[in-house]
Amino acid sequence: VDGDKHNLDCTYEGTFLDIINTLANANVSKVIVAINKMDAMKWSETKFKNVVNFAESVIKSSGVDFNNIRYIPISGLSGENLTSPCNQCKWCKDCLLDIIVQESGGYRNVEGPLRMVINESTRQGNGSIVSGHILRGVIAERDNVIVGPMMESFVVKRMKKGNDMVDYAGAGDITELLVEGPDRSIGKYQVIGNPESLPVGVRKFDATVKLNTFDMSIRRGTLMQLYTWSGNSPCVFARIMFSGVRDVHVKPKKLSGKVEASVEIILQKPLVLEIGATGKNLGKFFLRCNKTTIGSGVVTEIKDN
Questions:
Q1: Where do the coiled-coil regions begin and end (predicted)?
Q2: Second label for 58, Cα 20 to 30 Å away, from 15, 163, 197, 226?
Q3: Beta-carbon neighbour count of residue 183 at 10 Å?
Q4: Which pLDDT tens digit goes with each residue over 185-195?
């Protein structure tokens, strides 16, 4: 959140309260709030505490109760207190990366099939330099990889973690790769996988969604925007199969209020998705409509790809 403005503006579309409600709908129990632009506030502990108190009052007024919420001062512009403690912030001993590692328990799923989401990509000579977050599995130099949903094959020629050249990287690592293959640009939010478990693009799937739509009604065909690790796409509910108690099959014409439903979703463009039970990161998503987060969901069945 933007600590300088002291109104909890966030760095992406959506208010602080909107995001808190979204996390609550997704059953998130641990939250880290990064207070940004602390360099503009001269790393003042008093100003930091003022923002924290304001944030806690907003959370309390929303009725949301998290098991664990932690606040950390950072500067996104200068990169201070992100990956190492800041010398100018003597009153805070931890950096953002320290907090993330502490709260995640350090678990890394290196045994699952490779999934790396690309955050940045630039062309270089006969190849591309891509960087991103490895969600699952291991990747090594000279590996043959598949980029989805474009489904093109590339070879890893060089790897870097931070400023160090490496031979391999695994789940949890932020990694930069030089890959060579077809003369095609690799886009942001594409997903790198291995030939044994292809990162296939999906257009139609079933999901369980939890909605909080007191100000609107969602019907079949209502245009929404779906967000997940592998990008975002306009979408609609093609079918609303039941609502409320799972053993009572109700087929409502619309959904409103706070409700859980099983739906069939159709995307305007393919995204790499997985069933939530097996692909934790790529199996979850958020839904937005009219610039408001209206709920979250978990993929239960892939219908078409």
A1: none
A2: 226
A3: 8
A4: 899 999 999 99
